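User: Let's play a game. I give you a shape written as tokens, and you guess the letters that built it. Ready? Here's round one.
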């Protein structure tokens, strides 16, 4: 009797182990936006040509679990800077998803300038780029996923996992132009 109970328990344990392995899905990194560097004029200079705002379309891949964007800002016109977010996440991320990733382990080049970054949907990105905030209509953005007067770092987003989004960049300075480099990567299952 004892041998049959032991045999049943061993069989049950093996069946559960096999099912648990089948249920666990592997996670991997996927490039959303390769490294981009662009220049934004200060607000006063933008009146005479150039721009003080820019938007970039972020299309999240299917089965996105979370995603990240890294930014670094430099005063004036600077050459391209490589953040290497995809490579860093690929090395740091646990494909089983069991271990949480600390965003402070992701390195970004040091910054000498600052910008505002807003995560928005399509209608609000149009209002943002058309500067409707100057005429009191404004635009709405996701507060926890956005940053003001940001210099450099990585933002982790777990709440928005599907769809078409926009990152809006704004130079808050009236006179100083800035070069902004950013990259976005998703973790997909």
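Assistant: Ready! My guess for every position:
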């Amino acid at each position: 009797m004892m041998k049959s109970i032991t045999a049943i328990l061993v069989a049950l344990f093996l069946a559960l182990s096999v099912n648990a392995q089948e249920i666990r899905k592997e996670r991997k990194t996927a490039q959303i936006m390769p490294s981009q560097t662009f220049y934004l004029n200060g607000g006063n200079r933008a009146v005479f040509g150039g721009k003080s705002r820019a938007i970039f379309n972020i299309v999240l891949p299917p089965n996105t679990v979370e995603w990240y964007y890294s930014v670094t800002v430099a005063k004036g016109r600077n050459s391209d800077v490589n953040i290497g977010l995809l490579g860093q996440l690929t090395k740091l991320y646990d494909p089983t998803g069991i271990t949480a990733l600390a965003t402070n382990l992701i390195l970004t080049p040091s910054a000498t300038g600052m910008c505002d970054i807003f995560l928005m949907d399509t209608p609000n990105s149009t209002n943002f780029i058309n500067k409707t905030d100057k005429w009191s209509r404004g635009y709405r953005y996701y507060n926890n996923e956005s940053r003001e007067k940001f210099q450099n770092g990585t933002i982790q987003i777990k709440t928005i996992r599907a769809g078409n989004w926009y990152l809006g960049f704004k130079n808050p300075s009236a006179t100083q132009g800035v070069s902004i480099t950013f990259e976005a990567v998703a973790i997909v299952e």
